[in-house]
Structures are given as structure tokens and as C-alpha cells.
Amino acid sequence: MKFGLMIVQNTDNIGDDIQSYAALRFLPHVDYYIDRERLDAFCGDNDNWKVAVIMNAWYMYTKFNWPPSPYIHPLFIAMHISKEDYYDIGTRFLDGLGGEYLKKYAPIGARDQSTYELCMEKGIESYISGCLTLTLERYANIEKKDVIYLVDLNECQIKRIKEYFPDENFEEVSHSVQYTEDTDYEERMRKVEGLLKKYQGAKCVITSRLHCALPCLALETPVLLVYRDEFKDRMEYFLRFIYNVTADDIEDNNIDFDLSNPPRNKDDYLMLRQSIIEKCKKFVSECKDKKIECEEINFYNLLEWQDNLINSAEMRYRKEILDYANWCSELQEGKNWLENENKILKEEYEKLNNWCEEQKQGRDWLENENKNLKEQYEKLNNWCEEQKRGKDWLESECENLRKWCDKLQKDKDWLENELKNKHKNMRI
Q1: More exposed terminus of the chain, fewer Cβ within 10 Å: N or C?
Q2: CA 193 to CA 404: how far, in whole Å?
Q3: One-letter-per-residue 3-state SS of the chain
Q4: Which one has a higher pLDDT value, 238 or 310?
Q5: Considering the entire predicted model, what is its pTM?
Q6: What does the alpha-carbon distance between residue 174 and residue 151 come to, in Å, rounded to a whole number?
Q7: What's the distance, Cα to Cα, between the start and end of the chain in Å?
Q8: Rounded to whole angstroms, how far apart are CA atoms 264 and 267?
Q9: pLDDT higher than 80, residue 54
Q10: Distances (CA, A) of 260 to 166, 170, 330, 407
């Protein structure tokens, strides 16, 4: 049997290629590269023989391209089913023919708890397999470096970590990639291998990426995962295996992980690792020396099912578009009302502004009058002081005059008495 490697042709995240690389290690050779987003279109050599494919992946943006081609003989392991996609199909691609297809290959190896619960809810027998990247092997002759890689952390987190551990040697790494149409898959796998060797040689790694943290477990590089609740369905199951913190922990310096002397990773994942390895090796071994012919498929029923899936998504979109149109109409009415209210408010503002100017002018006039009154008051107060001093002087002078008049009166009385006495003496 020939072997196919599932890849994501148009990806900007090297984590997708790390997933493919993990599957590649089990394959004796690669005869076909199969795009995850076009699984239904694969036809191999169109010779009616199936191609063995390890189907570990994140499923998927184009969910109407389900189920996979009948030319694929799948091992569903390390499968994560997302509710996100381009057409808002969600998990409805697992109803009807889509679910029946998975039931045919059950039990399905779910990568995490959320996928396991979803499969069981849809009546698809499942078990938690863990992630295929846990099976990566350490490379020989990789020299350890005194460097800590910060993989896809935000600027604030990087700044805080560097502040808390100023003596450590940090380098920033991103899983974002930009492939061109000329980038072949062998080159992409070499790029993955180079990145993994880099991680193996690190003192430790701090990352927000699950497909950096899990490979670091397998490569025995101390790793700290920065966990976010928004990725709960993908990451929560693996927190038991990985030292982890939240963004708030970093902000508050609540990091129970010594970067100067990083602890060894937990080894609780080893049973999952061994189980995945055994299942993948068994699958490849069974497929090597046999051929499986494609079963007949009723393409009319399949296309009708896919068409209904797309139509249901289209109806949902049409309804959403209509809702958006109504919402936009309401927004326009609100905008018109606000513009009219704004016009009225501007007019009121102009009136209020003019009134404020008048009030300011009145205030300036009052302040000026108050100043003049203060000056008049000072003058009047000074004049009153002068009048008081004049009054006191006049009262003092009047008192002196009264005393002088009293003295004159006394002198007058004495003179009259003297004259009177002299007159008497003269008559005698």
C-alpha cells in the first residue's frame, strides 16, 4: 500500500507542519501529500487502490470538504475537532454521512477531552489518544545552550519576564511562517527539523503554543506553557502534563518555575506517548504489504449531503446578512438621530457659549466696578480717618477753650468782686 502525508498547504503556522512531521516519522516513504482542507478531492493514482494516511490534525476550516476521499485508508488518531470554520458549519459535519464515516473507523483517537466528548455526544466511539507530537524522538549530538526561547509571547509578557530574570539570556521565536508557491514540502519538513533541534538545545522554553510545548516534552526540554482560557478546548487536557501559568501570573510575577535552574518536565505523558507509537507502528506495519481496494460510494448521496451542509450554512449566512442589514438600518436611523441631536446641541452650545461670553463680560465689568469701589472705599475710609482725627482735635481744642473760658469767668468774677470792694471803700 502507498502512503500519504496529510499537510496544510496554505498555512501561516509552522505548528501545522510540526504535526505533519510527527506523522512523517512513522511512514516508510511518502507517495502523496494530501491537503487537510481538500480531503474529499484526493484520488491518488486513480487506480482504485487506497492510500494509508495517519489522520492526526486540527479539523478543519472547510468542513463541507468532508468526509475524506474513499481513496484514503485512515488512522484517526490525535484528532482535534474545532467548532471554528469558514462557513459556520461547526460540528454539524459530524451528522449524517459525516458521522457515519467516522463510525466506520472507530474508535477514534481524540487528541483532547473536548474532542472525545464531542465524538461520544455524536455517537462515535472514541478514546483520548493525546497528541502525535508527544512521540517525537530526541536528536543525537545536540549541544545545550544557555538560552531561553520565548515563543509567541506578547510584548508585555516578554518585558515582564526579562524584568524578573535580568541575568538570563533570552531569544524570541515565532511559529508564524510565510511560504511561497515554490516552497516544497521537503523544505518545510527541514525547517521543522531545524526548529525542533533549536528547542532541544535550549536551556528552557516559554511558549503560548501547544505545538511548541508538547514537542518540548518529547524532546525533554524544560517548558513552561502560558495558558489562555480561550484555548481551553485544545489545551486544558494537557495542563496536567505541562508546567503552566496564565498571563495574569506573569503580570503579578507569580511564576512558580525557576528559569535559572529549570525543573525537569513531568513524565505523566509517557504512557500516552507509548500508546500512540504502538498504534501508529501497527497501522503502518499492517498497511505495508497489503492493498485495499476502494469501496463503491454513492457520490450522488455524498454530494447531496455536502450540498445540504453548504446550503444550511448559506441559509445561516443569509439570515445573518439580513440581521446585519436590519442592524445597519437601525444604526443608520440612530446615526441620523444622533446627527440631528448633534446639530441641536451645537446650536444650544453656540447660545450657551454666547451667554457665557456675556457672563464673562459681566464678570469683568463687575470685577472692574468692584475694584473702583474698593478704591473709593479706601479714599472714603482715609477721609473718615482724617475726619475722626479732626473731630478728636476739635474736641480737644473745645475742651481747652472751655477750660480757658472757665478761667476767664473766674477772673472776671474776681475782678468784679475786687471792683465792688474798691467801690465800697471809696464811699466810706
Answers
A1: C
A2: 130
A3: CEEEEEECCCCCEHHHHHHHHHHHCCCCCCCEEEEHHHHHHCCCCCCCECEEEECCEEECCCCCCCCCCCCEEEECCCEEECCCCCCCCCCHHHCCHHHHHHHHCCCEEECCHHHHHHHHHCCCCEEECCCHHHHCCCCCCCCCCCCEEEECCCHHHHHHHHHHCCCCCEEEECCECCCCCCCCHHHHHHHHHHHHHHHHCCCEEEECCHHHHHHHHHCCCCEEEEECHHHHHHHHHHHHCCEEEEHHHHHCCCCCCCCCCCCCCCCCCHHHHHHHHHHHHHHHHHHHCCCCECCCCCHHHHHHHHHHHHHHHHHHHHHHHHHHHHHHHHHHHHHHHHHHHHHHHHHHHHHHHHHHHHHHHHHHHHHHHHHHHHHHHHHHHHHHHHHHHHHHHHHHHHHHHHHHHHHHHHHHHHHHHHHHHHHHHHHC
A4: 238
A5: 0.74
A6: 6
A7: 187
A8: 9
A9: yes
A10: 10, 12, 58, 115
Per-residue confidence (pLDDT) for residue 314, from 0 to 100: 62
Strands 204-207 and 223-227: parallel
Rg of the chain taking only CA atoms, in angstroms: 48
| Residue 62 cell numbers, joined | 472547510
Computed from CA positions of residues 18, 22, 28, 32, in that sequence, does the dihedral angle turn out positive or negative? negative
Q: Is the Cα dihedral 340, 341, 347, 353 positive or negative?
A: negative
**CA atoms of 221 and 119, how far apart (whole Å):** 33
What are 223's strand-pairing partners?
A: 205
Structure confidence by residue, pLDDT tens digits, 182-228? 888 999 999 999 999 999 999 999 999 999 999 999 999 999 999 98
Phi-psi category of residue 209: left, alpha or beta, with phi > 0 → left and psi -120 to 50 → alpha: beta
β-bridge mates for residue 81, sequence order:
59
- The single residue listed with the C-alpha cell 459556520 is 88
pLDDT of residue 428: 62
Peptide bond just before 67 cis, omega within 30 deg: yes
Using alpha carbons, select from 86, 134, 327 the residue that is nearest to residue 240.
Answer: 134
**Grid coordinates given for 213:** 510545548
Bridge partners for 34 per DSSP: 6
pLDDT 10s digits, 344-380 = 989 899 899 999 898 999 898 998 989 898 989 889 8
What whole-number distance in Å separates Cα of residue 94 and Cα of residue 90? 9
CB atoms within 10 A of CB 64: 22
387's grid cell? 475726619
Of how many residues is the chain composed? Answer: 428
Q: How far apart are CA 244 and CA 109, in angstroms?
A: 25
Find the Cα–Cα–Cα–Cα dihedral 412, 418, 422, 424, rounded to 10°. 90
